[in-house]
């Protein structure tokens, strides 16, 4: 049975990131997406760069198509993402300053969240706002929103999203939270502090999204620290979603069986920890099939062999990673 059914028996959601381009042009792929997934998330179509070609125009064609696809197939849809320092349109650098940033952000959230109100399971309201390297004591990223609006922009964004769609679950989403390095330890601490602060101020935040872009070649994460982190998040009354899971095989040996075994091992080890935490409600992989993965351009292999980070191979066949995810549920 497909992953969606295996997850459903545990009260969990399985899903994947998709793009308008792949889904609308590749019917066999679209069929597999509809079969395996209970929930989808647009990989890029809801980012500023896609939605805001000019300062005063919105372009919703691709995101509308995806939201309709999900509805027509009876799938849930996530929203990703309203506030991020990446995927901004070119005009952002010259047109935005501390005088107009607040109004621009409010208008963006009201328009985008309002358009899909009632149709989105959960929004990644703010993405990757923590960046301890910037040297602030609160660990927050300086540019661009904090620089324009101060640290309260995060709370502002959540309140605006809640007003535009009171039904949607609202999440803070971040990455590099699993490994046992000093950097990731600092990130876990800063994320927890941020979540605590938001909760203590009555901010409408309901979940933490953990991206979980893993590395097959990395030392396995520290299961105990990941577990404790998830417990701490849950004790704030927040749900947890694994939002962007994949396992890069960039630096693994060329042999496909070896690679697939290591990748599958990372999925299984991680999910065995994550799915033990009752606050975890969903797991989404960042793509479904190796046919479409951002890692092909982001983390290509030196030997130029196609990368294999996802549950299905490029021919849409189930891999060991699929088995690992199925077993973990
Ligand atoms: C990535 C997309 O997959 C790429 O296609 C795009 O070029 C860049 O963004 N963390 C996130 C996602 O929150 O939005 C990113 O998606 C991957 C890392």
TrEMBL record:
Domain (GH10) ranges: 1-328
Catalytic reaction equation(s): Endohydrolysis of (1->4)-beta-D-xylosidic linkages in xylans
Shown residues in whole-protein numbering: 61 to 389 of 395
Keywords: Carbohydrate metabolism, Glycosidase, Hydrolase, Polysaccharide degradation, Signal, Xylan degradation
Entry keyword Hydrolase: yes
EC number: 3.2.1.8
EC main group: hydrolase
GO molecular function list: endo-1,4-beta-xylanase activity
GO biological process: xylan catabolic process
Origin superkingdom: Bacteria
Family, per entry: Belongs to the glycosyl hydrolase 10 (cellulase F) family.
Protein name: Beta-xylanase
């Amino acid at each position: 049975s497909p992953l969606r059914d295996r997850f459903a028996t545990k009260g969990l959601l399985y899903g994947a990131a998709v793009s308008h381009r792949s889904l609308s042009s590749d019917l066999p792929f679209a069929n597999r997406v509809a079969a395996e997934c209970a929930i989808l998330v647009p990989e890029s179509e809801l980012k500023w760069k896609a939605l805001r070609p000019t300062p005063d125009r919105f372009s919703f064609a691709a995101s509308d198509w995806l939201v309709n696809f999900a509805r027509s197939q009876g799938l849930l849809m996530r929203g990703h993402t309203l506030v991020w320092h990446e995927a901004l349109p070119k005009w952002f650098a010259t047109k935005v300053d501390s005088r107009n940033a607040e109004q621009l952000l409010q208008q963006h959230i009201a328009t985008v969240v309002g358009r899909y109100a009632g149709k989105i399971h959960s929004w990644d309201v703010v993405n990757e706002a923590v960046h301890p390297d910037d040297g602030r004591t609160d660990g927050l990223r300086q540019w661009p929103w904090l620089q324009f609006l101060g640290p309260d922009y995060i709370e502002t964004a959540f309140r605006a999203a809640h007003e535009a769609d009171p039904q949607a679950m609202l999440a803070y989403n971040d990455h590099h939270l699993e490994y046992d390095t000093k950097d990731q330890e600092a990130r876990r601490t800063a994320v927890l502090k941020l979540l605590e602060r938001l909760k203590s101020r009555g901010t409408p935040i309901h979940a933490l999204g953990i991206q979980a872009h893993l590395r097959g070649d990395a030392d396995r994460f520290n299961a105990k620290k990941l577990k404790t982190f998830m417990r701490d998040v849950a004790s704030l009354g927040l749900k947890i979603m694994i939002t962007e899971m994949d396992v890069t095989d960039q630096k693994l040996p060329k042999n496909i069986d070896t690679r697939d075994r290591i990748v599958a091992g990372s999925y299984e080890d991680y999910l065995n920890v994550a799915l033990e935490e009752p606050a975890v409600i969903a797991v989404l992989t960042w793509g479904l099939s190796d046919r479409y993965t951002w890692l092909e351009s982001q983390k290509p292999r030196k030997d130029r062999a196609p990368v294999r980070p996802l549950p299905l191979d490029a021919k849409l066949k189930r891999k060991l990673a699929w088995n690992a995810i199925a077993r973990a549920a």
